[in-house]
Amino acid sequence: xxxLTGNDLGSGNVLWWTGAGWSRHVxxxxxxxxxxxxIARAEExxxxxxxxxxxxxxxxxxxxxxxxxxxxVRALGPTVRSDLTLKPADPGAGDWVI
Amino acid sequence: MYTYDTYDQAIVDARVAEFRxxxxxxxxxxxxxxxxxxxxxMNGLYLQLHAYMLRVAVPYGTLDSRQMxxxxxxxxxxxxxxxxxxxxxxxxxxxxxxxxxxDILADLATVEMHAIQTSGNCIRNISSDQFAGxxxxxxxxxxxxxxxxxxxSTFHPEFSYLPRKFKIAVIASDTDRAAMRLHDIGIQLIExxxxxxxxIYVGGGMGRTPMIAPEIRDFVPAADILSYLEACLRxxxxxxxxxxxxxxxxxxxxxxxxxEDYARQVAEEHLAVKAxxxxxxxxxxxxxxxxxxxxxxxxxxxxxxxxxxxxxxxSDPDFALWLDQNVTPHKAAGYxxxxxSLKPVGGIPGDASADQIDLMADLAERYSFDELRVTHAQxxxxxxVRQSDLHAVWTALNDAGLGDANIDLISDIIACPGLDYCSLxxxxxxxxxxxxxxxxxxxxxxxxxxxxxxxxxxxxCGHHHAGHIGxxxxxxxxxxxYQLLLGGSGAEDxxxxxxxxxxxxxxxxxxxxxKVTDLYLTRREGEERFLDTYRRLGMEPFxxxxxx
Lengths: 98, 548
Hints:
Number of strands of chain A: 5
Helix content of chain A: 10-25%
Number of strands of chain B: 20
Helix content of chain B: 25-40%
CATH class of the largest domain in chain B: Alpha Beta
Largest sheet of chain B: 5 strands, antiparallel
CATH superfamily of the largest domain in chain B: Sulfite Reductase Hemoprotein, domain 1
Oligomer: heterodimer
Radius of gyration of chain B: 23 Å
Strand content of chain A: 25-35%
Low-confidence stretches of chain A: none
Structural class of chain B: alpha+beta
Distance between the termini of chain B: 54 Å
Strand order of the largest sheet of chain A: 3-2-1-4-5
Largest sheet of chain A: 5 strands, antiparallel
Strand order of the largest sheet of chain B: 1-2-5-4-13
Structural class of chain A: alpha+beta
Distance between the termini of chain A: 20 Å
Number of domains of chain B: 4
Mean pLDDT of chain B: 96
Radius of gyration of chain A: 13 Å
Shape of chain A: globular
Order of helices and strands of chain A: EEEHEEHH
């Protein structure tokens, strides 16, 4: 599957395309198939996201998992500061990245 | 400390206003990201993995307590309560909001700081010896020269769009604490027949093609240094490659031309440049140097003994360890240089919380004539501490989690932010540093001086080429892999580390480091450092220990 991701223009937060908008949580992301580039152009033009790009991912029972570790780090947050990730109450969340 | 004059302040204030307008236009959509990106980079604002990152310049690594407190204020108000001190003697903030970036720059401007030229293909922040003004072995204080070069290079119209970024270091001791020969230009101030001048090295650097800068000129008189630098840059600007980013650094030009031919071209260019009269009058250097005048040292406390150790009450073993490891002789009797480790075992190299930053500012104000330094090893220095105040300083540091006694030991690891933060990285650096520091906890002193440096990609921000032990993280089919290098040094015995062989997993690289250090412990002779033993034995026995 393919996901569309980017950063929020103002905050820089990592965002994921849900099919209808943007979410901070990769679990909410939708498979954009071959349509990611056109969505990216439209959304960037509307300043709803900054520097969007399409990535490969695999579907899992817990939701989409980006294929590359860099995007998994982006999806969670720094593995060395669990308190600054999107799952601060789950110190083991970094295992998902590796 | 240098104090801004009206020109400096006007330039920085104008830049803040200009960038505020640019940010507003970006947020309104008047500027696209392609248009805005070079503008934000000129102000040190990157877009990294999780957010915008702001790199703030700390000129030649020198700060006063007011500036340090501002760094803590920014961490607390605009970021997530911490900052990351870098191998370029700067500080980075990892969680910046675009709309707030102009406010941060405005706050910085109130304490004579900025983020100008911390990115882009220009002359970056000038780096220097963190012991400048305190070192017993310096021929002069290098900071007035570093400041003069900062002024010359700021918004230099010819050098704003060089083929590639450009880094200059200035030192004034035979002991190199600034990795001077791994800079595009390395300047060593020396004294010859009573006259101060500069030995010039050009074409060093790390990255994907590491090179040690060759000597280009053995002595440039003080009155010619700026014009000579201008000539060095002009030759590079004229002939440096702009067609291939991987061959654009000056080291490639100097290597391709040969140091001798490059030096000849610089000498010819210098004849023309000198006539332009850009070298400042002696009075201007004296004006700047006066701002770096030595503080009024007046201590008559205990002296260092013949081994360079401080002769204080050493009954507290932890304090005694810290004295031995983190305290260095000062040029003034009764004073010492204190290195504050930002490398707690299991911590993140170079990170400091806002509260820790404030504390270091308080200590500087109270005990170090209001001065601090950032080191390229990602630590902080209090350069002028009375020896009689050392215990009080250590106690305060220890209470704040800053009392680790590990300067230049294996746990004093240089590590880039790596894949936890950096969009260029291929692998994480920090977890490897944490695992190595934890593995060797309690055994660091047995190994003696051992500089371990980790980069998360080939760009080598973690200086892995210059590590006695270096580690380079690479991407191997989507999986983090770590190459091991041995034998590098960024000091006066400069050398480039060599790769041992096939790489390792995250845990495997920690085991490999231990095999290397185990061999060192069995084979070292006398007081040999790890690096000395490696140089004596060569690579083969270490490879055998690792892979055999």
